[in-house]
Write a structure and sequence with these properties.
single chain, alpha+beta, FAD/NAD(P)-binding domain, Arc Repressor Mutant, subunit A, DNA polymerase, domain 1, seven-stranded mixed β-sheet, six-stranded antiparallel β-sheet, 21 helices
């Protein structure tokens, strides 16, 4: 009935979709198995992509040939560059998407790929022979063969939904949970745990009083995610901001005795940095209000997402409390918020290519690894799909270093440190933030993807070369252009910057604090004319490179130092227990993780600098 596939991907969320297209675009035959073809790439939570550090990840996915950025650009209804008041290492793109269009376009792009087949049914188990995964088993008893399998089960593994004192099985509102896989993996020697996440109520936008809320428009000149020729956003849809109050908090507290979070029914740990509203008012009792972002679900729907009001309280308590929020006095609810518990597998059980240590040719990606967020899931799916293809073709794994991508930081953190709560990416997790900016992801990663054999990246490589060359030409303009006191002093004084007494090179002005190239172009028409012929993206890249050259050089020196440790390899069968000079904790952790290099060993919690010195001596360094 079925051919033997190169890669079977189980689950069609953000991780599964990226895994499928990555493997297919590298030449593998792929089956994408999902319980419901109508929910492929569904945005289960908020209708947005990107955000702090997450936006960098979406740009990296795009630079590596993934589709998340392309789909977001085509379906975005608002775009904002966050943290513009800070340095460029912190700038993070974020877009509101049309939820229905987002899922529809993802499905269309998957169906256009002739190497991808689909199967709509629950996968209840794996076929494992002699420690190698050779296929999947479905609910009606079919066995489908494959060279490799990628599990991207999201919140569906033994999913349990909580609303107040009610609880029922489900992987998402209106969809059943997936069963069978967890028990089989436990029987195969895996460890599992439980995690919790949640979502807010959905509201009828026609019942809200928008006039009393703060308007949050998109950027005046919106950017986009993809480095390809995707359309620019027009006619942006605004979001709005409202706030809770002491009255709202008191109403919510009335339901605490029926809250599954506080009465022990929820055992899984939730995301620390995206807590439910009841958790917020319990943990931050001194705060008399919390911000709520009122986000549209799309252009052609009245459904509203109340970002910041995630809750598992009883539906009547949610309803009464929301009615006390300014603008929500006449609110009508489509559905209450809920919490969901699900199985995950501690990611220290994975190799750096996301293949499991216990079973060969089996890969995990997304929330099954303990992460939270579309972007984190999609990036893991992309890497798992690439590595599944490479593994079955007996090629070296594709592993991104921490100095190469936020995706590298994410996976390195997971496999070396594990996680006991839903892992979310932040810029603070990366040591090399000024190198890993959102504006240079294509320069960093597209050449690496091209080397892997992704033939659809030919035009992208031309754009990368063009952007690099243009940025160099812009840099020369900065260095050659000169300014006189009468041209610039008025502007400098308006910025509380010291005036110049004689003509100086423009670059010395640009390197001063609070100087912005766009503003400088408005007061220096001759400079603007010189820069007019260049792409705006290249000008921005040259500006950042010039301003932060010292920081970039310093970070690169740190990278070079770490890479020297990364070059010292450790054999797979290295006996750490035999090295008695190591601390007991180091021997235990190193044996569990089995690091590939000294550099990886240095990032494992419990392994001290003295332990690394001992390892270096032992391997002759």
């Amino acid at each position: 009935m079925f051919p033997k596939y190169d890669v079977i991907v189980v689950g069609a969320g953000h991780a599964g979709c990226e895994a499928a297209v990555a493997a297919a675009n590298m030449g593998s035959s792929v089956m994408l198995a999902t319980m419901n073809m109508q929910t492929i790439a569904q945005m289960s939570c908020n209708p947005a992509m990107g955000g702090v550090a997450k936006g960098q990840i979406v740009r990296e996915i795009d630079a590596l040939g993934g589709y998340s950025g392309i789909v977001t650009d085509h379906t975005a209804i608002q775009f904002r560059m966050l943290n513009k008041s800070k340095g460029p290492a912190m700038w993070s793109p974020r877009a509101q998407s049309d939820r229905m269009l987002f899922a529809r376009l993802w499905r269309n792009m998957l169906e256009e790929n002739e190497r991808i087949d689909f199967w709509q049914e629950m996968v209840t188990g794996l076929v494992v022979k002699d420690g190698v995964c050779t296929g999947v088993r479905t609910g009606i008893g079919l066995e489908i063969e494959a060279e490799s399998v990628v599990l991207t089960n999201g919140t569906f593994l033994n999913g349990l939904i909580h609303i107040g004192e009610k609880q029922f099985g489900g992987g998402r509102a209106g969809e059943r949970a997936a069963t069978g896989i967890t028990q089989q993996l436990l029987d195969l020697g895996f460890e599992s745990g439980r995690m919790k996440t949640g979502t807010p109520p959905r509201i009828d936008g026609r019942s809200l009083n928008w006039d009393v809320m703060e308007l949050q428009p998109g950027d005046e000149i919106p950017s986009k995610f993809s480095y390809t020729d995707t359309p620019e956003i027009t006619d942006q849809v605004p979001c709005h901001i409202s706030y809770t109050s002491p009255e709202v908090h008191e109403m919510l507290k009335e339901g605490f005795d029926r809250s599954p979070m506080f009465n022990g029914r929820i055992r899984g740990l939730g995301p620390r940095y995206c807590p439910s509203i009841e958790d917020k008012i319990n943990r931050f009792a001194d705060r008399d209000r919390h911000q709520l972002f009122v986000e549209p679900e799309g252009r052609d729907t009245c459904e509203i997402y109340v970002n910041g009001f995630s809750s598992s309280l009883p539906e009547d308590v949610q309803y009464k409390a929301l009615k006390l929020v300014p603008g929500f006095e006449n609110m009508k609810m489509f559905r209450p918020g809920y919490a969901i518990e699900y199985d995950f597998f501690p990611p220290t059980q994975l190799k750096a290519n996301l293949e499991t240590k216990q079973v060969k040719n089996l890969f995990f990606a997304g929330q099954i690894n303990g992460t939270t967020g579309y972007e984190e899931a999609a990036s893991q799916g992309l890497m798992a799909g690439i590595n599944a293809h490479l593994k079955i073709n007996e090629k070296e794994p594709f592993i991104l270093k921490r100095s190469e991508a936020y995706i590298g930081v994410l996976i390195d953190d997971l496999i070396n440190k594990g996680t006991k709560e839903p892992y979310r990416m932040f810029t603070s997790r990366a040591e090399y933030r000024i190198i890993l900016r959102q504006d240079n992801a294509d320069l960093r990663l597209t050449p690496l993807a091209k080397e892997l054999g992704m033939h659809h990246l030919e035009k992208r490589m031309e754009r990368v070369a063009f952007k690099e060359e243009e940025a160099k030409q812009v840099q020369k303009v900065f260095e050659k252009f000169s300014v006189t006191p009468d041209q610039i002093n008025g502007f400098l004084e308006s910025k509380n910057s010291a005036p110049i007494k004689q003509g100086v090179k423009f670059l010395s002005i640009l390197l001063r604090p609070k100087m912005d190239i766009d503003e400088l172009r408005t007061v220096l028409p001759a400079l603007d004319a010189d820069l007019e012929k260049f792409d705006q993206e290249s000008v921005g890249l040259a500006e950042v490179t010039a301003k932060y050259a010292g920081y970039i050089k310093k970070e690169q020196e740190m990278v070079d130092k770490m890479n020297r440790l990364e070059s010292v390899k450790l054999n797979d069968d290295f006996d750490f227990h035999a090295l008695t000079a190591l601390s007991a904790e180091a021997r235990e952790k190193l044996t569990e993780i089995k690091p590939r290099t000294i550099g990886q060993a240095s990032r494992i919690s419990g392994v001290s600098p003295s332990d690394i010195s001992i390892l270096l001596v032992h391997v002759g360094r």
